[in-house]
Amino acid sequence: MNDNHEHKCNICNEQKAEGQGIRVVSGFICETCEEEMVRTDVKDAKYPFFIHQMKQIFLGENA
User: Fold this and answer.
1) What is the C-alpha separation between 62 and 38, in angstroms, rounded?
2) Could you give the CA distance from residue 3 to residue 17 in angstroms, rounded to a whole number?
3) CA–CA dist 25, 8 (Å, integer)
4) What is the DSSP letter of 15?
5) pLDDT value of residue 58
6) SS3 letters for 17-51?
7) By the 8 A CB rule, do 27 and 57 touch?
């Protein structure tokens, strides 16, 4: 499917084509962020940032 719609990544806030990431509930995560999240260890300093951004997808902007 060739979809030219762009979506804002909930992690990095960059506009990406829909085919360049995944839809999660009502949010969108670009491939770059998805790959970084998967590789990030729970002890990494960036891990809490990813948790916070994911909460925004599941709980809304005020999470």
Assistant:
1) 25
2) 7
3) 14
4) E
5) 85
6) EHHHEEEECCEEEEHHHHHHHHHCCCCCCCHHHHH
7) yes
50, 11 Cβ separation under 8 angstroms: yes
Task: Report the distance separating Cα 56 and Cα 20, nearest Å.
Answer: 20
pLDDT of residue 1: 40
pLDDT given for residue 11 in this prediction: 95
Integer-rounded Cα Rg, in Å, for the chain is 12
* Structure letter (DSSP) for residue 7: E
Segment-wise mean pLDDT, segments of 10 residues, the chain, 63 residues: 73 87 90 96 96 88 56
